[in-house]
Amino acid sequence: MLAQVLFSGLALGSIYGLVALGFAVIFKATDVFNFAQGMFVVCGAYFAVTAISLLGLSFPLAILFIIGAAALMGVVIHIFLIQPLSGRPMLSVIMLTIALSIAMRALIEMIYGPQGRTLTTPMPTGVFLLGDLRISQLHLTAAVVCWGCMAVFGGFFRYTSIGLLMRATADSHEAAVVSGINVNTMNRLAWAIGSTLAAVGGLFLGQLQIASTELETIGLLALPAVVIGGMQSIPGAIIGGLLVGIIEQLAASYISPKSSDIVIYVLLLLILMFRPWGLFGQRELGRV
Amino acid sequence: MTTLNSSPSPPAAASWQRWVWWLLAAAFVGYLPFVLTDRAAFGVALSNMQLLNLGLTQINLMVIAMLGALSLNYLTGCAGLISIGHAAFYAMGAMTAAITGSQWGWPFPLVLLSAAVTGAVAGLLAGLPSLRVRGLYFVLSTLAVHYVVVYVFLEYQFKFFDVVGVPYPAAALGPLEINTPIRWYFFLVPLLALVYLGLRSSLRTREGRVMMAMRDHELAATSVGVDVRILRLKAFGLSSAIASMAGALYAYYLTNVTSEAFGIQFAIQFIAMIIIGGIGSLPGSLVGAALWLLLPSVIAGFAAQASGSTGIVRVLLVEHRAQLVQLIFAVLVILLLIFAPGGFASIGRQIRDRLALRRKQG
Amino acid sequence: MTTMLEIKGLSVGYARKGLALEDVSLSVPKGGIVALLGANGAGKTTLIRAVTGLLDLHHGHVHSGSIRFAGESVLGMPPHRRVRLGMGQVPEGRLVFKQLHVEDNLLVGAAVLPRAQVREGLDAVYQLFPRLLERRHSAAGWLSGGEQQMLALGRALIGRPQMLLVDELSLGLAPLIVKDIYQQLRMVGQTLGTAMLVVEQNARLALEFAASAYILNSGRVVLSGTAAEVSANDSMKESYLGTQRRDGGAQK
Questions:
Q1: Which of A243-252, B23-32, B295-304 has the highest mean pLDDT?
Q2: Which among A152, A182, A189, C132 could bridge C80 via Cys, Cβ 3.0 to 4.6 Å?
């Protein structure tokens, strides 16, 4: 039923929006199109598995673990992989993030085994009825938490001093240096945030499905989301995520489950051909 | 990015030595398939490890992959168009071969030709976004094209065949059936040589040089009066035609393919190959493809040796061999990107320059 | 400590382009105002980059010599730390944060101040440049050239720097606005005792503003002294600064 599909779409879209937001933060700060964002999502799911099943941490501690591990991972990746490649041509950087995702996938499969692991959390998994609608509590929780994270991030970005410095750095790298901003620190912070947001998305996707490297393809949907919404626009990334979620669910229900990803990519192609700056981005000539 | 891929001509005095090297190389290439099939050279038996655990099948697949790597490097390294959807053209070739070969029963050479033609057309279409957007946006369009084409293949596979895959008839050149690895080898290697020489001479024409110039300095090339956009489209068409033909070859060789064979991992492999070999270097593409295809076999060889021992080495090599290979490659690519961005081609060039310097210093 | 900035025997080159500065020595006394003059390509911007730490960004590096700021050697120190050390920078081209609005631009500069002093700092800048107060919620990219220059200065000044480095303030601005800005800067120098090193194409304005001056030509210091001494040296001025007529602008 349409309302049902829309609701699932919005819930999943909130998760995509969060992952896309992380991706956009990284892109705006360091100009890197992070193809490894899908694997960051997978890492989130596996961090959750490690914390809960392997280390037996309580849920609040597990959350802290996930956030800490993801942030650390983002910073380390920036220091050792991204920073050495600054100023290099785009193919090199793209290939680096792709190679990184391959390496991460291989490592995870070696450590945890190639099959997925179930993720059990104390999050509610029941369903409640609202009239004719069956509302999954997990979907609802995911949506609420993701929106909460986006709001927290938005507040941080807009109202704190560090958020201001990050916005300034994204505006102009050289002006930031001249103003006494430690650009390296800002970039690392961006990667920490981007990775953490993806990890939170992974926590939910892992719970909704299963923690496995297959989650990467879902996480990668953040890429078309960001482009459709507008690569230079943070709100655009979020809205792009929502749209992708809704369209994916609509396509899965009304066309066929296999076609849902394709519809997204066809839409991506259309946007690239006719409105490459996305729905909410600004026409920027020469931004290639 | 690296500049010209063709090496400067050596001094004339050394040319007879080069002839000798070429003859030796040709002899090696010609004798290799027999060595691998008989597992012996000049009557002396060779162990698996001595042969690097390679079989002729891997070599043949490597030659086909070299076609893919060459075509991608031509597109990306020489024309400057980054494409991560290259596997899509393999899929196109496989699908065309399925239609013309399996379904309509055309003879093998015509099947290859038809694959090349549809590949060229698909390439021209896929290259259309390059008229509108450049850089990152174009890369994304190639990614989208990849998913779309593979999906079409999937639908085709399920509509006309089944989940097991799309079957292909035996390859034949007229009355001569290509049904053993040796015959495949002696068909593929000359074909590869032809394609290589063709691409190389195409780069040496005026258009070719302009194309490489435009890779680095688009505005300057436009001022020479060449329509860079048409050149780019042509490059895309040629590159896709070759990749498509390679896809048809791949399908016929394996005699059965499914859409899963053309996943995004497959496309990424080719990029890894050209990075390892060196972007813009045609010989580098061959090195990259060779490394890519042969390393897993070598590691499998070590794994076979290690199956007796215990401990972490065994676990890594035997249980997680596939992941280990992936990891090694990914790390290799990363290290090359950070420390030797020109790939093995640039390493080779540095060695050669250093040798030349030493020769000059006497 | 009587010298704010001490440069001794500095030689700087760019990759593949040879030496841009050769054996340059220069000093800015505490609270002093020094002008750096010279024709285009003489090496003025290179010198500023060496002092501010932006050489790397432009593929240049120091071959020899020393740069000491507030008694500390700054060679090898990353740019942001030099700013924190008290080196306010107003680069060529202003480099304001175009998408942030005016007040945010200033707040970036104020990030070095303790929380309590930020409001005070903002008020001081708005007093100095009232135009900025009017436009405080406009995006910096929409400001006129003169307003952007004021913004860049305000951003650098709000952090109470010990020395201000200004590169090509007058470029692209109407003479009246430039005069006005220099007046404000002089006042800042007098009230706060901020030292200043000013790179200027407009030699006449610079020599009126500064207490002493250095003239660079082809990477070397060819003349230095008090502003009066340098002004009086007509023949030098003509050869090295291009023709300098009544219109007040240096012609190239």
A1: A243-252
A2: A182
Which of A161, A164, A181 comes nearest C80 by C-beta? A181
A-B Cβ pairs (cutoff 8 Å, strict): 121
Q: Is A283 inside a domain boundary?
A: no
Amino acid B4: pLDDT: 46
- Contacting chains of C (3 CB pairs or more, <8 Å) are A
Contacts of A40 (CB under 8 A, 6+ apart): A22, A34, A70, A73, A74, A194, A195, A198, A199, A202, A219
**Mutation for B interface: A91, A223, A273, most B CBs within 10 A:** A91
For A122, the domain range is: 2-212
Domain assignment of residue A109, yes or no = yes
pLDDT by residue (tens digit) across A113-134?
A: 888 888 877 887 778 777 777 7
Q: Is A38 contained in some domain? A: yes
More confident position, B165 or B199: B199
Is there a domain that residue A275 lies in? no
The answer to whether B335 contacts chain A (CB < 8 Å) is no
> What does the pLDDT read at residue C196?
93
- The percent of residues above 70 in pLDDT, for chain C, comes to 92
How far is Cα C225 from Cα C231, in angstroms, rounded to an integer?
10
Number of domains in chain A: 1
Q: Which residues pair with B45 in a beta bridge?
A: B40
DSSP C123-185: HHHHHH-HHHHHTTTSBGGGS-HHHHHHHHHHHHHTT--SEEEEE-TTTTS-HHHHHHHHHHH
- For the stretch A151-179, pLDDT in tens is 999 899 888 989 999 999 988 888 999 99
Q: What is the 3-state secondary structure (H, E, C) of chain A?
A: CHHHHHHHHHHHHHHHHHHHHHHHHHHHHHCCCCCCHHHHHHHHHHHHHHHHHHCCCCHHHHHHHHHHHHHHHHHHHHHHHHHHHCCCCHHHHHHHHHHHHHHHHHHHHHHHCCCCECCCCCCCCCEEEECCEEEEHHHHHHHHHHHHHHHHHHHHHHHCHHHHHHHHHHHCHHHHHHCCCCHHHHHHHHHHHHHHHHHHHHHHHHHHCCECCCHHHHHHCHHHHHHHHCCCCHHHHHHHHHHHHHHHHHHHHHCCCCHHHHHHHHHHHHHHHHCCCCCCCCCCCCCC
Query: How many CA atoms are closer than 13 Å to the CA of B60, on its beta-carbon side?
Result: 23
pTM of the model: 0.85
Test A90 with B129 for CB contact under 8 angstroms.
no
Which chain A residue's Cα is nearest to B136? A288
pLDDT, average across residues C226-251: 61
Whether chains B and A touch (3+ CB pairs under 8 A) is answered by: yes
Q: ipTM value, please give it.
A: 0.85
A141 pLDDT exceeds 90? Answer: no
Q: Does B316 reach chain A within 8 Å, measured CB to CB?
A: yes
Tell me how close the Cα of B324 comes to any Cα of chain A, in angstroms. Answer: 7
Q: DSSP character for C18?
A: E
Give C60 to chain A, closest Cα distance, Å.
Answer: 15
Strands C60-69 and C3-14: antiparallel
Cβ contacts of B331 on chain A, cutoff 8 Å: 99, 103
- C-alpha pair distances (Å), C37 with each of B307, C150, C175, C177, C181: 76, 22, 18, 20, 18
| Six-digit token string for A55 | 């280390």
Hey, which bits of C15-51 come out as E strands? 18-29, 33-38
The SS3 assignment for C217 reads: strand
Dump pLDDT digits (tens) for A216-233.
888 888 889 998 888 777
Spatial separation of the C-alpha atoms in residues B68 and B188, rounded to whole Å: 13
* Structural domains for chain B: 24-49 (no CATH), 54-361 (1.10.3470)
What is the reported pLDDT for B216? 65
